[in-house]
Amino acid sequence: xxxxxxxxxxxxxxxxxxxxxxxxxxxxxxxxxxxxxxxxxxxxxxxxxxxxxxxxxxxxxxxxxxxxxxxxxxxxxxxxxxxxxxxxxxxxxxxxxxxxxxxxxxxxxxxxxxxxxxxxxxxxxxxxxxxxxxxxxxxxxxxxxxxxxxxxxxxxxxxxxxxxxxxxxxxxxxxxxxxxxxxxxxxxxxxxxxxxxxxxxxxxxxxxxxxxxxxxxxxxxxxxxxxxxxxxxxxxxxxxxxxxxxxxxxxxxxxxxxxxxxxxxxxxxxxxxxxxxxxxxxxxxxxxxxxxxxxxxxxxxxxxxxxxxxxxxxxxxxxxxxxxxxxxxxxxxxxxxxxxxxxxxxxxxxxxxxxxxxxxxxxxxxxxxxxxxxxxxxxxx
Length: 381
What we know:
Layout: H1 3-6, E1 11-15, E2 24-28, E3 31-37, E4 43-47, E5 61-63, E6 66-68, E7 75-76, E8 82-84, H2 98-108, H3 118-127, E9 136-137, E10 139-142, E11 145-148, E12 169-179, H4 182-190, H5 195-198, E13 207-217, E14 221-228, H6 235-240, E15 246-252, E16 256-263, E17 266-279, E18 282-292, H7 301-337, H8 341-344, H9 356-364, E19 373-380
Helix pairs in contact: 4-9
């Protein structure tokens, strides 16, 4: 993947309501992070390591509007500056000679004169920036999510329209992590073929499933428009499908993927996922699920989502299981054959693999994806 390009983007790492009074650990592109609310409830993001003894700051707590390390109690303000070191007092109980004070300072390891510069000196080798005690990252709270960027001095994000609350829709927001390859986790969500095998009975069942598709793309993403010749015949469709005739699947760099389920031009239901490359083999998934409100609909949102959620969780469990298996198989193959294995033995793809070339182009500097138009018939006994 193009890590340099991915680092320039904003990612939703946590629901706003999930970050309370305690620090919360997270990751982004292998970087350990801590999210925390301080004095005025504003959100801050730091590298999750205390420069004193390298303990994760997420194991600490908030004290007097400061982030306190849980090991020796060092306290940092919202800019990451060291504000308090327990064991070093400003008060001196009795006068002491300058020589004796120097001896005490040498024994204690820190003098009052250098108290405010302690963390800067400790951090100099670790962060190569003596003026910034903790590494701080741009952090912004919007649309019910906490967004983080690994590029310094980044302006607030422009939240994708599809990831904001939508007028006329109830919304369910969730966040989870799982083991998977980042690109293939996205491909899995947007791929129609696997649903007949991994989600058999739930999304598709045996029999003919015929659909027409057409694609378009630009430098930021791509769209696949599906027209359903045969209605999907899985249990979920039988229970909740009010007449879906069109599916519109979209992807936007760096990780926003969505599928809108429409009746004609009217969106009835939409699943919007923001995939996050947390670490190698670890993917985060921020989810917004939208259900259209109807004038005659008397069911409260919590009840509608409560009825649907067990089915959604089962679909996710099935995807999670196969993605973990795929990742393990890929890692085992690389271990046995060496790092060049994937280059020497590329994946075998066909015209039914509609999205992988677009994803590799956008996320890993592959050749530009080719838009596809055609018919797809899924017919399995």
